């Protein structure tokens, strides 16, 4: 007598298929989480780059007040809303106020009235402008730091490890500090032309 073999799947085959499918879904979920974290870090870095470029461009347009730009700026720096932006020094103060608002995302909000909240900007930002010759022609460096979501220690001896902008504000070993730095030479023209 011939034995008939059942057609179809056995319970073990079905369980193995479900297990493989579940592992694939978990891998896909982990990939999605990593992609979101990377996209956030990329968006923060792009915003920092745009603000740093804006800082340098405004400095190039207001070379008479270069010394007023060389400073540290963070969320606790206060500015008056009624600044007179006509003189070079006051224009520099107005520019610094605008930099702070860009860093904090003051112009990007959601909601209305008491439910308004900022949705743009960097997380806990600090902006540092340094120069080899503050107030005169020279190399100017704009450094923007902010708090990242995941800890990451920079390599020992790297510029990121030795940079002092925002030092100590982003974890015990600056493991949450993210840095964007942009440098350029700015010429402050003298009365008779040339750089001074």
How big is the Rg?
26 Å
Q: Numbering strands along the chain, what is their spatial order in the largest sheet? A: 1-4-5-6
How far is the first residue's CA from the last residue's CA? Answer: 108 Å
| pLDDT < 50 runs, ≥5 residues | none
Transmembrane segments: 12-35
InterPro entries: N_methyl_site, Pilus_4_PilV, Tt1218-like_dom
Domain Type IV pilin Tt1218-like: 30-95
Protein name: Type IV pilus modification protein PilV
Overview features:
196 residues; two-stranded antiparallel sheet; 4 helices; 6 strands; N_methyl_site; Tt1218-like_dom; membrane; Type IV pilus modification protein PilV; Pilus_4_PilV
Describe this structure in words.
- By secondary structure, the protein is an alpha+beta fold.
- It is 39% helix and 17% strand.
- The chain contains 4 helices and 6 strands, in the order H-H-E-H-E-E-E-E-H-E.
- The protein has helices spanning 11-61, 66-69, 88-104, 159-162; strands at residues 72-74, 109-110, 117-118, 126-131, 138-147, 177-186.
- The strands form 2 sheets. Strands 1-4-5-6 form a 4-stranded antiparallel β-sheet, with helices on one face.
- Strand 2 (109-110) and strand 3 form a beta hairpin.
- Helix 1 packs antiparallel against helix 3.
- The protein is elongated.
- The chain starts with 10 loop residues before the first helix and ends in a 10-residue tail after the last strand.
- 20% of the residues are buried.
- The model has no long low-confidence stretch (mean pLDDT 87).
- Pfam families: N_methyl, Tt1218-like.
- The chain crosses the membrane at residues 12-35.
- This is Type IV pilus modification protein PilV.
- Residues 30-95 form the Type IV pilin Tt1218-like domain.
- It comes from Methylococcus capsulatus.
